[in-house]
């Protein structure tokens, strides 16, 4: 048996080639600290060099080969890199098998069992990637799951959680192998279920997507036309067919029987994928339009298909925004939800209903743009005009809520009454409508408008009754002197509020700004009052007299 510690070091050329692959990556390792920690934790604290030399080194060699293969896997390898990736997986299987053998000889029963599960997982991963013996891959994954199920029943809580996590990573791989062997097609929502974190999920996300793309391509070969509101539009472009088929499969998952149990965030994720698929289809259609030239027949067909796809895109946009409204309404009546998020303000619902009104207007305008409309199109337009009316009533209701929260009773009362009138008008037009859910929602909205209008009316009357009392209180505090406003910094010793009333938008009085002028003492002014009263002595005799010459005397 060869010893892994005696492997020859790589040559300088190999080191240089490895360094040239990723010249920008720089790793920082505290070598001495890492060496000391590894030696103390793995045997050398008690002088057990055998334990340090074999088991841990072999295990890390397997992990090293596996991580290198996963790096190539996530980077999307080409044919040559795939061969290299499979070689690294084989190396990982080799080291994992050796590790399992050594643990069976030197380790206790639990260590041996865990090492066996680790080796089975590595073998299953290699067979899974090779796609040659899926049955053997599934057998290895099942062995791994069985071991971790047993180990998860014992030990500490942390160990049980680790085993549970490993089982959750292996389960989708077993399911994929089972479907591969049974020949059943994968559904699109199963791909969404695999979007989790963990190396095991990274292993076959690309494979799942490739299988789905292959399945869609096979199904798209038989898809020759697209139906919408009683009209059929031929599809000649293969990419357009695949994109539309992908969107339709996602729509089936969104409107299936078990959608009630699907969380809202996952539904929003499905909507995003639907929009992406339809946008791809519309892009292909418009590329075909650009290359169609002057062939009127083909251009008419492509224009009709583009209009139909755009209409479906608008229809799904309305459904998504309605989902956002339901999420916002669920948080509207709560003070605080479980995840400590902020409550929904009525202004946010007003904005969402603005979007819905715009969406319905755009959709009805798009469908009405045709010259000859059939019965299905006319029915659809009438239905969404009534929905637009219902959205207007909801918007008016939450706009009234916004005014109510600001203390504007008259405006809120008027808006509640207007929302009720719009709701009653919509209910009269929906008398024979098959959409019972919309009728029930509008009846509940009408009742809410009626009760809220009564509340606003009563609250406004109560506030008006308190006006004389507030007025007399205000008059009693009037004075002819200068009015002084109370600021927080001026009354720190008293417990008086510096805030305005809760239903008004008066500013808070914290401190005066700019600060008022304050009187300060000025410098003294000195006046010399005795100067004019003093008589100074004559000092002319002390002054030096100027001497004159002969000529100056003569001329005088």
UniProtKB/TrEMBL annotation:
Coiled coil: none annotated. One of its GO terms (molecular function) is signal recognition particle binding. It is found in: Cytoplasm; Nucleus, Nucleolus. GO terms for biological process: SRP-dependent cotranslational protein targeting to membrane. Keywords: Cytoplasm, Nucleus, Ribonucleoprotein, RNA-binding, Signal recognition particle. The keyword Iron-sulfur does not apply. GO terms for cellular component: nucleolus; signal recognition particle, endoplasmic reticulum targeting. Component of the signal recognition particle (SRP) complex, a ribonucleoprotein complex that mediates the cotranslational targeting of secretory and membrane proteins to the endoplasmic reticulum (ER). The SRP complex interacts with the signal sequence in nascent secretory and membrane proteins and directs them to the membrane of the ER. Belongs to the SRP68 family. This is Signal recognition particle subunit SRP68. It comes from Oryza meridionalis.
């Amino acid at each position: 048996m060869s010893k892994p510690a005696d492997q020859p070091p790589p040559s300088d050329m190999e080191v240089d080639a490895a360094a040239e692959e990723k010249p920008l990556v720089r790793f920082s390792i505290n070598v001495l600290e890492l060496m000391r920690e590894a030696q103390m934790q793995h045997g050398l604290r008690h002088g057990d060099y055998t334990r340090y030399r074999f088991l841990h080194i072999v295990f890390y060699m397997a992990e090293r080969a596996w991580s290198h293969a996963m790096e190539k896997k996530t980077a999307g390898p080409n044919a040559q890199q795939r061969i290299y990736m499979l070689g690294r997986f084989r190396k990982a299987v080799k080291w994992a098998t050796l590790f399992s053998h050594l643990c069976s000889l030197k380790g206790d029963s639990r260590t041996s069992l865990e090492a066996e599960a680790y080796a089975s997982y590595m073998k299953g991963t290699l067979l899974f990637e090779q796609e040659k013996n899926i049955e053997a891959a599934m057998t290895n994954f099942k062995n791994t799951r069985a071991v971790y199920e047993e180990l998860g029943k014992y030990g500490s809580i942390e160990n049980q959680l680790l085993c549970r996590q490993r089982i959750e990573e292996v389960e989708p791989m077993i399911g994929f192998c089972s479907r591969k062997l049974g020949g059943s097609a994968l559904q699109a929502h199963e791909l969404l279920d695999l979007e989790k974190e963990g190396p095991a999920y990274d292993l076959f996300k690309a494979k799942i997507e490739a299988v789905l793309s292959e399945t869609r391509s096979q199904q798209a070969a038989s898809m020759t036309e697209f139906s919408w509101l009683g009209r059929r539009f031929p599809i000649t472009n293969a990419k357009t067919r695949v994109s539309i088929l992908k969107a339709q499969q996602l729509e089936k998952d969104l409107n299936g029987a078990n959608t009630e149990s699907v969380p809202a965030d996952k539904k929003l994720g499905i909507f995003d994928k639907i929009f992406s698929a339809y946008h791809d289809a519309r892009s292909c259609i418009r590329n075909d339009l650009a290359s169609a030239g002057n062939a009127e027949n083909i251009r008419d067909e492509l224009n009709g298909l583009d209009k139909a796809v755009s209409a479906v895109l608008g229809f799904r946009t309305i459904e998504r925004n309605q989902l956002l409204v339901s999420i916002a309404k669920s948080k509207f009546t709560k003070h605080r939800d479980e995840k400590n998020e902020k409550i929904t303000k009525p202004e946010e619902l007003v904005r969402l209903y603005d979007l819905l009104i715009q969406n319905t207007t755009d959709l009805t305008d798009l469908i009405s743009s045709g010259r000859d409309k059939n019965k299905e199109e006319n029915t659809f337009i009438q239905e969404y005009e009534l929905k637009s009316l219902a959205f207007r009533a909801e918007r008016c209701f939450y706009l009234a809520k916004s005014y109510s929260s600001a203390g504007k009773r008259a405006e809120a009362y008027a808006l509640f009454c207007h929302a009720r009138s719009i709701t009653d008008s919509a209910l009269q037009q929906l008398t024979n409508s098959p959409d019972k859910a919309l009728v029930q929602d509008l009846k509940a909205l009408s009742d809410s408008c009626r009760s809220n209008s009564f509340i606003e009316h009563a609250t406004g009357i109560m506030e008006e009754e308190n006006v004389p009392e507030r007025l007399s209180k205000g008059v009693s505090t009037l004075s002819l002197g200068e009015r002084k406003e109370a600021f927080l910094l001026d009354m720190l010793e008293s417990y008086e509020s510096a805030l305005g009333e809760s239903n008004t938008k008066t500013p808070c009085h914290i401190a005066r700004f700019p600060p008022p002028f304050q009187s300060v003492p000025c410098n003294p002014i000195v006046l010399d009052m005795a100067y004019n009263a003093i008589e100074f002595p004559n000092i002319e005799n002390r002054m030096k007299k100027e001497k004159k010459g002969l000529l100056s005397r003569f001329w005088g």
